[in-house]
Amino acid sequence: MDLWMLLKAFLVGGLICAVGQVLIDYTKLTPARILVSFVVLGVILGGLGLYQPLIDFAGAGATVPLTGFGATLAKGVAEAVKEDGLFGAFTGGLGATAAGITVAIVAALLAGLFCKSAEKG
Fold first, then answer.
1. Is pLDDT at 1 greater than 80 in this prediction?
2. Which region, left, alpha or beta, applies to residue 120 given φ > 0 means left and ψ of -120 to 50 means alpha?
3. Is the whole-model pTM more than 0.85?
């Protein structure tokens, strides 16, 4: 196991999450808007080719946060457009992120089945 890669992933992923926490604590932005902003930022940086060097440097520290999801969307769209033309712009993002979306849906389903909900109060 490469300890240096683990450290880089931890630091970069932690920094991305810390930025999100600072935005939650010191702005009036809602968590939903911050999450959407991170995905859009990842799409923009991924589409411009600026996010790939961060992925190469930090591995999972850059791909696991929502910015990495956005970069994967952009990469999937770019590859699908090369193969399928304009139709790829509509299908590429979902094709590239299908595994992650499926895991999120299954995890939510399992949490709903096995965890008891309660009202806060």
1. no
2. beta
3. no
